[in-house]
Amino acid sequence: MIPADELVDLVRAYNPKTNEAKLREAYEYGREMHDGQTRHSGEAYFSHPIAVAAILTEQQLDDATIITALLHDTIEDTQASYSEVADRFGNEVAELVDGVTKLTNLQLSSTETKQAENFRKLFMAMSKDLRVILVKLADRLHNMRTIRAMRPGKQTQKARETMEIYAPLAGRMGMQWMREELEDLAFKVLNPEGRASIMRRFITLQKETGDVIEKITADMVLELDRNGIQAKVVGRAKKPYSIWRKMKEKEQGFSRLSDIYGFRIITQDETDCYRVLGAIHQRWRAVPGRFKDYISQPKSNGYRSIHTTVSGRNGRRVEVQIRTQQMHDVAESGVAAHWSYKDGVRGENPFAVDPAKWINSLTEQFDAEDDHEDFLEAVKLEMYSDQVFCFTPKGDVVKLPRGATPLDFAYAIHTRIGHACVGAKIDHMRVPLWTRIKNGQHVEIITAEGQSPQATWLDIATTGKARSAIRRALREVDRERYVKLGFELTRAAFEHVGKKATDKTLETAAKHLRLESREALLARMGSAELTAREVVQAVYPDLAPDESDEISRERAVIGLTEEQIFKRAPCCKPLPGERIIGLTYRGHGVVVHAIDCEALSHFEDQTERWLDLHWQPGKHKAIYAVTLELTIGNDAGVLGRICTLIGEHKANISDLEFVDRKPDFYRLLVSVELRDSEHLHSLMLALEAESDVAMIERYRNPEKARMPFGAQQ
């Protein structure tokens, strides 16, 4: 455990004006609060907050951040309170500690919907004060360095979460060194054999060639001296995970992989960066397509450097990064450079970005996403992206993630340009919209009046901004259709209880359901986000059917133990009254199939997993979704009559999808909530008797048997 004096010395080394008394007070307070607590390894728990604080001193961060690191677990794990921390260390520290506490409680590797909501909270915390994330990243780094003390299952969970979330986040913030270490520590847990094989190859290579890094470094220093350039050269082998990833991406073995060594050349000023580039290219052959100038076109997190790859000794490729000392400081700290101190003064680094502007640029498009999965997709697209730089016809630079298309380019210019896009030219040549843009290309968008976004564009666009704009436009188009369908559904529901769906009635229902307007209510009805029962109950709660004597879903199946829960198989969707078989799944409960389900043939040799089950006799609630496939005439009012007929049979439509549209007919899938097999039989007879229904049958999808826990039950 680092003593208080040593920690103070680490801070004083870059900030002589530090408040030593407050640092010592925070150290003692944290030690007192965590007294008696131990880590999985058996050592005193307070050793962890001290280690986190020490990691942050390497970034030369301010006193408030260092104190927060010392106290970051006190509010969550000890008797300390927010008010007590605020009284002793100020509101700034209390807010930061509270922010870290809230982040710790976010389960970022949970289910998709919950993960998306927690990502939202993560970005909200970042927008308030980015130092919260810096402390959390340092916390995760130390936990990964000491992860071997955890049980194997917990190690795997934390390593996967680190690889998928925290490492990319560190990289997006410009803290590349932290990203690499987090990835490598997680790689060591998730694939120890793969990492060990890379290390063995390195050892073998070193025996065969000697210290390549030392030799190439000496070659570069000699070349710079010949050109009269003063600069520092630092070489290193790339991290095992970085090499593993390159092997997978390029589908090459270790022996064929070339650029496993990286060199940084730190110059005195920007002019020398380009002099160094000239000297390196004059001495060694440059590899085509591997040059990037992030000095003239910086990354959004402030990163500046020149990247080039050359053929070094014995034809082995080496990557070279050329930058000034100030650029290097930002490259090491990323967005954190905004808070770094030097000689007791907040750094005046001209390349450090304003964290507020950076986080706003990162999150502005996420705010427009109402759908959880859309939001999560947009976040991950941004976090995992690398950048390409392209030009408008006027010569303006546009930054896009790697793999972006002209459609992404159009939306990056303006949403209006994206919506009206009908084609594109790259370097004056007409290209398909799905073409991948490369660095340095000139892109021109062709627009036309009357054009609107197409659903297929979602398969072409890659950026969160473009995909969000396309979805919003498509939702607006669908909205009109949903409103019409919603009105038919609502009218039938109210007529079923002897009432009329007047404008005033619908406005009252919208108000009770906290929706902004009558149209919003109808749109949600049409898109199956609201059920007819919910709308009727909002206005006439007394008219809702008495369901006290109905069998609930929890007690619907006979033959299960108390701890077992069941889910209906998404392939056959059995109903009460039908003969059923249960299949047990470890950790997931029981999946119930109809006795004639095709999927059961895949489990004939696993009879030990089969359970003989029965539906509870009696009246069940109409909550079991079944999908019907209908072919109906394409005439005015037909769909409305079909929906009315379904409502009259006390069945609720939970989803509706048009599969095929022709001039004379529609083919659609309708999900209806039913009580049992008799309910289904009577509904299908009524629909079959309808003159506008050409065909009706129960829709089953054997493919869904492969994902019994991924589909709606």
Secondary-structure content class: alpha+beta
User: Overall 3D geometry?
Assistant: globular
- In round numbers, the mean pLDDT is 81
Q: Which residues sit in consecutive blocks of at least 5 with pLDDT less than 50?
A: 709-713
What portion of the residues fall into strands of 2 or more residues?
15-25%
Tally of extended strands? 22
Descriptors:
6-stranded mixed sheet; 5-stranded mixed sheet; 713 residues; 26 helices; 22 strands; alpha+beta
SSE layout:
Blueprint lengths: L3 H9 L7 H14 L13 H11 L5 H9 L2 H4 L4 H8 L1 H14 L7 H17 L2 H15 L6 H21 L3 H15 L1 H18 L2 H15 L4 E7 L2 H11 L10 E7 L2 H14 L1 E2 L5 E2 L12 E6 L5 E8 H9 L7 E2 L2 E2 L8 H9 L8 H12 L3 E5 L5 E5 L4 H8 L1 H5 L1 E6 L2 E3 L11 E5 L16 H33 L6 H10 L5 H9 L5 H8 L17 E2 L7 E3 L11 E6 L3 E6 L15 E6 L8 E10 L4 H11 L3 E10 L3 E10 L2 H13 L3 E6 L15
Helix pairs in contact: 1-2, 2-4, 3-4, 3-9, 4-7, 4-9, 6-7, 7-9, 8-17, 8-18, 9-11, 10-11, 11-12, 12-14, 18-21, 19-21, 21-23, 21-24, 21-25, 22-23, 22-24
Describe the structure.
The strands form 6 sheets. Strands 1, 2, 3, 4, 5 and 6 form a 6-stranded mixed sheet that branches. A 5-stranded mixed sheet has the order 14-18-16-17-15, with no helix packed on it. The protein is built from 26 helices and 22 strands. The chain is 45% helix and 17% strand. Strand 16 and strand 17 form a beta hairpin. With 713 residues, it is α+β, with helices and mostly antiparallel strands. The C terminus is likely disordered.
